[in-house]
Amino acid sequence: MTIRQVDDSSKMNFKIGCDTDKSPCLFKKFKTKRQQAIAEREQVLLCLAERLMEEHGFSGLTMDKLVAACDYSKGTVYNHFSSKEDLLSALCIKAMKTELQLFHKASNFKGNAREKLLALCFAYRLHALLHPTLFYCVLTSKTPAVAERASQERLDTQFVLEQQLAEVCNQLFVLAMEDGDLQGREEAEFAQLSFAAWAMAFGSTALMLAASTAQLVQALEEEKTLMFNMNLMLDGMQWLPLSSEFDYWDSWQRVGMEVFADELSTLKEHSKHSGAKGKIT
Amino acid sequence: MTIRQVDDSSKMNFKIGCDTDKSPCLFKKFKTKRQQAIAEREQVLLCLAERLMEEHGFSGLTMDKLVAACDYSKGTVYNHFSSKEDLLSALCIKAMKTELQLFHKASNFKGNAREKLLALCFAYRLHALLHPTLFYCVLTSKTPAVAERASQERLDTQFVLEQQLAEVCNQLFVLAMEDGDLQGREEAEFAQLSFAAWAMAFGSTALMLAASTAQLVQALEEEKTLMFNMNLMLDGMQWLPLSSEFDYWDSWQRVGMEVFADELSTLKEHSKHSGAKGKIT
DNA sequence: AACTATTATGACGATTCGTCAAGTTGACGA
DNA sequence: TCGTCAACTTGACGAATCGTCATAATAGTT
């Protein structure tokens, strides 16, 4: 199997088994029970960190608090995450993984290519609403302040996940092309079009999440706004069928009922318990 | 003792270019020289803070460092900014004010309504490139972690500025309607359409600024991407003339040459001195 | 059991945030 | 010019946090 990492002896003492699971389809390839236990503990720590952040807000996540909340000492925690930024980066990875799962679920929606893309956007917004703190976490991880202090391994993982997320979107353009819904576009343009879709979904979602700006758009129906914006842009791409000749609001609602019923009820439950909007502080 | 608007004739700042009450609280009327001096000092502190952030990065801005860098004591600095978040909020206001100035400049571009909207986007991107750290600053200020600890007065100012920025955009929709370039839209829809434009401009700009995602779009021509995305969406709105029948790339370049020549040369100068991209850490 | 490589511990120094009691300033009236 | 007092300034301080490292504990091997 894999050769043991004997080479880098200087780091050996300080780095524990940061699981080298760059490949998502992972065999758990741990030599010892010990490393296995360490990897499992990392997941426990991450869940704890996520809970701390959801409860006490974004700035309420502290290495000291995490240490106090778990059964291990500071040194042990620092063996897993070399800095607070590294922890953030790990949380970002966790968020992207669940996002990817939602994406895969969304692309199973039965419908034409454009409906599937809307389903993807539905998943994107759903994820942001379910985990608003993690959404900010992903944003923050792009900041150089974080990126510069995160371990290279995690940065690589982030990059891979980003590509996988983008690939799900790209495939829909290929599908639309095959179905004849998108004409006169070169395959080389797909990256550009895909980026446009991503930018619109991200921009709309992020702005709607931001509290103060919400005052400006409170007159709008938040639920419909993302779909509305995406439709504007997809019409601009001449992606058939156009929104004037197809009831995408019906599709949007069906995505919620047919694919994400569980998540939506969780969301309702959640917002009942904790006020109007998820706390992010 | 509260004689408010009596002594303004003696304190009038004769600024070239009729500055009536556009900026809400910059040129207030001060009762005493002392308060005048304090207000001026606040501007000095803000400039210092901005420089600290540009030099040492986003996380390099510290109250302690600011205190060390200026000639005043900690208590005095805290008299101006009640917390680090309040300072961030003040920087955000500063950023939005310069952005508003760029917006006004942009709307003077000679052309049809859609060209003017593109000019606005040009200004938006320009501002982000000129002050990447301030761009992140504005983003961060929307975060509850910051908003909850900023003074109410600053939050109000932010809200006013936000409305003014949005109003510049809204006016272009009115203009397009009057010119017959946008048909079949109710005025009630303007807020929605304006939000869509804002979301697209913000999403595209923010994603392109984020370092790691830039790897995904490095194949694209960054310079053209924002314009491309905006055109997709504006075509979707049926905002005439459509991009298929008008050379907006020419307009885009003319905006740079005719309106923002100075800023562009500053930008080039800046990027020469300090590597490829602005540091944000 | 003894030995060694790996992991765990928590006290510690360094930074940073924000406060406050004591000291200083300056506008104003006498 | 001087005294007064409200407003402003100062910097030492306590609390919280970050990250390190010498030392203790443990698992695996002989």
TrEMBL record, chains A, B:
PANTHER family: HTH-TYPE TRANSCRIPTIONAL REGULATOR BETI (PTHR30055:SF234), HTH-TYPE TRANSCRIPTIONAL REGULATOR RUTR (PTHR30055). SUPFAM superfamilies: Homeodomain-like (SSF46689), Tetracyclin repressor-like, C-terminal domain (SSF48498). This is TetR/AcrR family transcriptional regulator. Residues 62-81 bind DNA. It comes from the Bacteria. InterPro entries: Homeodomain-like_sf, HTH-type_TetR-like_transc_reg, HTH_TetR, Tet_transcr_reg_TetR-rel_C_sf. Pfam families: TetR_N (PF00440). Residues 39-99 form the HTH tetR-type domain. Keywords: DNA-binding, Transcription, Transcription regulation. The lineage of its organism: Bacteria, Pseudomonadati, Pseudomonadota, Gammaproteobacteria, Alteromonadales.
